[in-house]
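Q: Predict the assembly, please.
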Amino acid sequence: MRAASTFFYRRPYWYLALLLLPPLLWFGTVYLGSLFALLWQSFYRIDDFTAQIVREPTLETYKQLVTQPANVDIVVRTLVMALAVTAACAVIALPIATYMARYARGRVKALFYVGVMLPMWTSYLVKVYAWRLLLAKEGIIAWVFAKLGLMGVLDSILAAPGIGGPSLSSSYLGMFLVFVYMWLPFMILPMAAALERVPGSLIQASADLGARPSQTFRNVVLPLAVPGIAAGSVFTFSLTLGDFIIPSVVGAPGYFIGMMVYVQQGTAGNVPLAAAFSVVPIVLIFVYLSIAKRFGAFDAL
Amino acid sequence: MRYRPDKASWTTRIGAFAGLAFMHIPVLVIILYAFTTEDRTYQFPPPGLTLHWFGVAFQRADIWQSMSLSLAIASCATVFALILGTLAAFALARARFPAKDALTVLFVLPIALPGIITGIALLAAMKLGGVDPSFWTIVAGHTTFCIVIVYNNVIARLRRLPPSWVEASMDLGADGLQTFRYVLLPQVATAFLAGGMLAFALSFDEVIVTVFTAGNERTLPIWFLNELFRPRNRAVTNVVAVIVIAVTLVPILLAYYFTRPDDEHETAR
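A: Predicted assembly structure:
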């Protein structure tokens, strides 16, 4: 044993290779292999008459994806939702992250960290299910509005074109709320981590130079928190783009990318189109990552 | 206005506590609903409270089967992920070599890309390779993203470890194995355990990848998903939701406990 450990210590590359081989084999075959299999399928097409998959390379499926207005609508709808959810998460997360990172001390701070972590790791499905209870016509949100005598307000919100619907649980507004709730902790934690790293001396310097707290926050703290916001936004953006369960359980009938992938590979049996559709979020996320990288997201991950 | 750098403004304070409440109300509501006497609608407030549905749920064989399947899958996936994730973390923590950046990206890709991509990619590969969905295809899918959790936890701890400790140990005459046993292992052990706990919790309630790799196997999340799409036993579903929360709560709190001293150490400046 001792001889072996000395042998590897003297030859760091052997040691490295020994460590890396198992995880690399796994990722190389199971994960990357699968991704390439997926990519490969997107270059097949489905024969319109026989509904059989034609196994010869073609761009036909991609053409169908970018030229059919219904498909383009799905991509745009998903993208708008992902951006709106990301923006809302950033706004709601800011006071929470600021308070837990910069002001809370001792027990309150621990309370906030556990309080953010617990809902983040609570079962995804249970949380979606909870929102179905909350948003239901006879559910708690409608009850609160009724008790406050604001039923008219809720109805007029739901009557709004685009975001409204017959009830909260079948409107884009309801879906938006669920998305924001689900991904909020993913925004808070990197944001708080970035805010923790802002040196106290900078804040004092800013105050000494006569800045009001709000000015210090806007001009000193916030710019330094941008990498954390960018890192968090990668999660909120990516998670919204690919989700297919939330749009199926809550929300209006319009399709989202994830649902389209699920339906096309399943009941519709059009695996090439499903594969092509799943390439869309990959491309969008790589574009988003390259933008986020400019804001220092990778340093804050 | 006097400047108080240690005092948050009222707006920040209200925003923070309101946000925290927003994150917990849905979970509390679920717990309340597990005791409701109303089993046909989601009426609020519940007309009455009862323990009846817990008894009903515990007598359901399908729930027990799904539960034990999920526990078995989570255990297997966690073991594989602990081995592979820790190896990857040790390899990439300090070493410098040409393809390192690419590997770092590769190892976090399964959580950076949406789960549905992993799911449908595995399905596409299984179809091309003629592999039938089974217990082990579910485990393979779960292992892929659980590795990332373990890797992230362990590598974060390794990076925080001063390199001088390893050098000091070697200078004092320890060989590589002794250094690992007496210097690295005690430092990394809690991060390793925390990673394992989180991987277990994640695997236990994972559904998006599972849907694609499960075939006819019904894990607890798949059972739950079917109820979400076609509610048949609302009252029993509420109880299962509470059970799922309870099962995942323990490993999550343990993971927090294992990694906590470091956080305090880090923030106590």
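The first strand of chain A starts at residue 45 and ends at 46. The two ends of chain A are 37 Å apart (CA to CA).
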